[in-house]
Amino acid sequence: MARASTSQVHGIFEKIAGYYDRMNFLMTLGRHGRWCREVADRVAPPRGGKLLDLATGTGVIALEAARRYPAVSVTGLDFSQEMLRRARSKPGADAVRWQHANATCLPFADASFDAITEGYLLRNVEDLDRVLREQHRVLKPGGRLVILETCPPSGPVKPLMAWGIRVLVPAVGQLVACDRSSYAYLESSTRHFHSPQSLAEVLRRTGFQDIGWHKKFFGTNVIMWAAKAP
Ligand SMILES: C[S@@+](CC[C@H](N)C(=O)[O-])C[C@H]1O[C@@H](n2cnc3c(N)ncnc32)[C@H](O)[C@@H]1O
């Protein structure tokens, strides 16, 4: 399943919520937490400001941001009630406002947030431009966006990494969660998603500037950043 509809994506995340954190730890060999800390570090919202973590899932980035910036109001948004239920039950969850909504149509006024973070949202959406335009709309002028996303493998390690993602991810899904098909979707959505160069183009045409990125873990993941013009 290279492309999935919004309702199929929603169904997958409702289904995998119970073992999402464990699978993420295994698939990134424990690096996911470190990348989320880097996302929170890079976004650096102003004291007294407002930060929105989209596709918050089990809340790893939102909780890290709330811990790191106690003087910032943090909202974690997701369209999966099951993922949000896990987020709400974690230590420190009271410091975050949890919101059930779709990232395609954000329930916020224009220029509401100083900063936006998101982990693994963009490859799951049907209309990437619309989702990024929504983020641009709710950011204040000068606001910052930091994205954690997977990358299709490239460069000399491409055959090895492509094999690893294609074979190992669904196999670990089967072993840990008895759920090969959900993880086969996650694998194919990674393989067919934009490279950082191509995602930077989409960010530019949806209004963002000052775009940069760091690849992680043999180029299979990337942290990208961008800003709305002041
Ligand atoms: C792979 S999880 C990432 C969770 C978290 N950001 C992390 O890094 O661990 C992707 C999340 O995106 C959410 N999601 C996907 N499409 C969405 C949409 N259109 N609106 C809101 N949430 C969405 C899913 O429900 C899921 O919780």
Describe this structure as you would to a colleague.
Its EC number is 2.1.1.163. It is an enzyme of class 2 (transferase). This is Demethylmenaquinone methyltransferase. GO terms for molecular function: methyltransferase activity. With 230 residues, this protein is an alpha/beta fold. The protein is built from 9 helices and 7 strands. Strands 3-2-1-4-5-7-6 form a 7-stranded mixed β-sheet, sandwiched between helices. Helix 5 links the parallel strand 2 (73-78) and strand 3. Helix 2 (20-27) runs antiparallel to helix 7 (158-177) and helix 3 packs across helix 4. The longest helix has 20 residues, at 158-177. The radius of gyration is 17 Å and the shape is globular. The protein starts with 5 loop residues before the first helix and ends with a strand. 42% of the residues are buried. The model has no long low-confidence stretch (mean pLDDT 93). It binds S-adenosylmethionine. The site of S-adenosylmethionine (SAM) has 22 residues, from helix 1 and helix 4.
